[in-house]
Amino acid sequence: MINEKPTLKSSLKAYLYLLPMLVISLTFNIWPIISSFLMSLYTKYNFYTDKVDAMGFDNFVYLWNDPDFHLAVRNTLVFVAGVVPVTVILSLIIALLLNQVKWLSGFFRTVYFLPFVTSTVAIAMVWNWIYHSDYGLMNYFMGLVGLHPINWLTDPHWSLLALIIMSIWKNLGFNIILFLVGLNNIDKGYYQAAEIDGANAWQRFWNVTIPMISPITFLVSVNGVIGSFKVFDQIFALFQGQPGPANADLTIVYYLYQKFYTEYKYPIAAASGVILFFLILLVTLVQLWYSRKHVHY
Amino acid sequence: MAKKISRILLYVIVTLGAITMLIPFLWMVSTSLKTSPETIKIPPVWIPKVLQWHNYVEAFNAAPFARYFINSVIVTVVTTVGQLFTSILAAFAFSRLHFWGKNLLFMLFLGTMMIPGEMLIIPNFVTLSKIGLIDHYGALIVPWLASFFTVFTLRQAFQSTPEQIYYAAKMDGATDWKYLWTVLVPMSKSTITAVTVLSVIGSWNSFMWPLIVTNSENMRTLPVGLQAFTTDAGTQYQLLMAASTFVIIPMVIVYIFLQKYIIAGISKAGLKG
């Protein structure tokens, strides 16, 4: 019975079960994927009538020559490079510490995870207030340790950092949970064996924990890269509907939003989405290739 | 002795970290209970002299938050229930039924998970404009009624239930439909709770899509309404923080009561591959 062959009757029945999901996902997932690749090639397009008169690669040429798009790609890459490594390392350290905590461990886990469940928009408002140049907490705390106040949200040199700090804070909890699960799954026998062989705590960490946790590290990095490439909500809310001062926080998705929603340049917006897809794919493939050599399953 | 010191050190570090995580929340609640002059005091006041509870009433009435709240509840509930329904049916087909094109279809859906959702916004907007659903609940809900992530997670759970029960139920004359709802679904309760909670959180906090498909004030969801409120509130930070607090609170409550399911759900879903 396990290797039953599908028949006409069993297939019909299965597709009946799949029908609701198929209808929705063909309309709102599968077709739009094809459609947005096609749309990125529309060069003469009337969005009122949805009529296409010519196709070609002009939209990509436009992006290639648009300094705003260059800025968006650069800012996105800086954002990813700023957020992902720090989040991964910090969350691993916190998970290692929390793994040792017995008393009040539930409380600490709740606290570290809290930012994950909160609305990005609502909490970005709070950070907007924290970053206030005159009355914000950030500059107050910096003043306590003798640092000069910074115009976090209005100085283009610092506004991307402001976004990065907030995003790290928001993302930590999710990764900590995954690392904690991973640490919990490591067979205690490895540690005992290492201890018998005379390995000290540091050696046990490098030679047991790090290799055993590497699949999680890989997962967390890939997740982090994909999520960070798509950053939008945080920017919109933190800078109150602006891509930062002097476009300093303009990212690819923000660029897509502007072209699509405020300038009605649908094909160019679609083309920027295609570039986003290939960038994510490329980075994910690099990570995959790297993991083949360094991740121990 | 050394062990005791490292124990204490551990708690000190973990507590400092926890405070850092909590500060934005504490600052939000603290500010929301201040008078306007208190908000700009330096050094900052953490506990206001007199707690200004009326800030919440004032913020709530300063914009149609009641309407935003109802919209968010409707969108979240309908999206979650609908998504669960389509996903349970599909996950059942993928885990127990035999049909032509099963592997192909599965790989296709797996492939779509690689596509950034932001790419789909433009074509979906065009589709919904054509059927006249922009600025309706339909636009906020319908595109999210299918989630392959949910299907995938439920399929894993369904597959991990013993196949013998399926054959036993069929032997006893139960139909697939009956088996699904009276045996499989109750047996997978914890996974279903987990995907439900994740879907609720995602739907409640969703911003970019509702921002794009709503034009009129009375179709806005809470996050979009809150964002619009910032322009009205200007520098009245005590009102802004009160509004942020009541947007955040419902999910914090959901989280505190259901956290073991959320964590189990994330680890299950996150660790699948």
UniProtKB/TrEMBL annotation, chain A:
Membrane topology: Multi-pass membrane protein
Domain ABC transmembrane type-1: 73-287
Major subcellular location class: membrane
Keyword Chloroplast annotated: no
TM regions (residue ranges): 12-34, 77-98, 110-130, 158-184, 205-226, 266-290
Pfam families registered for this protein in UniProt: BPD_transp_1
Keywords per UniProt: Cell membrane, Membrane, Transmembrane, Transmembrane helix, Transport
Full protein name: Carbohydrate ABC transporter permease
Organism: Lacticaseibacillus suilingensis
Taxon lineage: Bacteria, Bacillati, Bacillota, Bacilli, Lactobacillales
TrEMBL record, chain B:
Tagged with keyword Cell membrane: yes
Chief subcellular location: membrane
Membrane topology (UniProt): Multi-pass membrane protein
ABC transmembrane type-1 domain mapped to chain residues: 69-258
Keywords associated with the record: Cell membrane, Membrane, Transmembrane, Transmembrane helix, Transport
Entry's transmembrane regions: 9-29, 68-92, 104-125, 137-158, 179-201, 239-258
Record localization: Cell membrane
Coiled coil ranges: none
Membership in a protein family: Belongs to the binding-protein-dependent transport system permease family.
Protein name, entry field: Carbohydrate ABC transporter permease
